[in-house]
Amino acid sequence: MTDDATTTVSVPQPKPQPKGMTIHHRRYALTMLFLIYMLNFVDRQIVNILAEPIKRELGLMDWQLGSLTGLSFAIFYATLALPIARWAERANRVRIVALSAITWSLFTAVCGVAQNFTQLFLARVGVGVGEAGCTPASQSLISDYTTREKRASALAFFSMGIPAGSLVGMVVGGLIADSLGWRASFALVGVPGIALGLLAYFTLPEPRTSSVAASGAQSTPSLREALSELGGKRTYIWLTVAMVAMSFGIYSNLAFQSSHFLRNHAEGLGVLAARLHDLTGIQLGPTGFLGTVLGLIVGICGAAGTWLGGRATDRAVARGSLNAYATIPAAAALCLPFALFATYLTSNTVAALCLMGLPMLLQSIYYGPIFAAVQSLVRPRTRATATAIFLFFANLIGLGLGPLSVGLISDVLARSMGSGDGIRWALISTSLVYVLAAMAFMAARKTIRRDIVS
């Protein structure tokens, strides 16, 4: 057998829907998991819009801001995801997701009482600890709720929690920060996650029956067997490389795009906020205005890109084109550097905000295809582990080092360019990582048809 993409092999038929679950149960479950994932990103990303107020009050450098948005969160998020995922292969996944939501929400509220960098860093570590249990268990559940033909769309719907959470985090965080301060923003956004976690614990369906769960504990592959299965999949390895590169670029961009606008377009934002007040009577400060606008851009364009990627991939897979899991995100990744260059190099505030919509759309296209591919590359009882290992590298390298790298580059460039141009060129230089992502996706394309098993 060759690695040629045109090689004809038999692909196992998708398994039937879980017994005892009606279409209404599945819709409720998918909606609940979407809302939990949305709050996951509200609590994860809210620090981005609050970065400048936090920096001023606590006297931080850009590298410290980068560590708060990336490294502090990623260290424990990445390392705990695997043992929690192994637990999820055997235990009740609903309870894992619910308890995770309650934990990260409590630590988000704690961020609001931090008095220095160390305390805030440790509180963000707590957020990462809580969120470590969400994604692997949730994606494993979704794969049990749906058939392979609808898996990319279902996981794309789940992944729409990323732009939706970023929207809510930026808008709500910015508005609360304008009126009550950044500390109140952390405290107030933590409350809904606690309530939703409790609701999920008592109402979310777990497809595994008690008898299936009991027998499954004996049939679940050991960690060594799971690693052996994953290590033999060249597609999985290349998709992991692609995910790391995409995460590095996306989290770097999200962490500092607000800082870029507040430093390079402060005057333009003030003018736009004044015009908004004249037209509507709504009074917003720069942070509240920018949070609202960027939140809408990230939310709307990100949701559109996520939906588009999932729907296009499902249609292509239904026609037998399994390569779409890789080619669709590869095309989007290749276009991203050019879209970001145009956005960050323009001096016109309105043009820059409008141009930001295109990279937000493009960077969201890959969510549905890549997660659906990973879930399809392994047996059902290895899915949570596959996702956890996949996200271990993506978060430790992409999330942990991406924002930190931008912060370090910005601090160095600021010595000669000033803080505005320093952050601009730090963001532009790191956007070239998307080319590596596109190359990795195309490498995965060569073997994906052979490697898909479920």
UniProtKB/TrEMBL annotation:
Residue ranges for the region (Disordered) are: 1-20
PROSITE patterns for this protein: MFS
Q: Which residues form the signal peptide?
A: none
Protein's membrane topology: Multi-pass membrane protein
The UniProt regions of compositional bias labelled Polar residues, in chain numbering, are: 1-11
Q: Which UniProt keywords apply?
A: Membrane, Transmembrane, Transmembrane helix, Transport
Q: Which residues cross the membrane?
A: 28-51, 63-84, 154-176, 182-204, 236-256, 289-310, 322-344, 350-374, 386-410, 422-444
Q: Which GO terms describe its molecular function?
A: transmembrane transporter activity
How is this protein annotated for GO cellular component? membrane
Q: Which residues form the Major facilitator superfamily (MFS) profile domain?
A: 29-449
- Protein origin, superkingdom: Bacteria
Question: Where in or outside the cell is it found?
Answer: Membrane
Q: What is this protein called?
A: MFS transporter
Q: Which organism is it from?
A: Azospirillum palustre
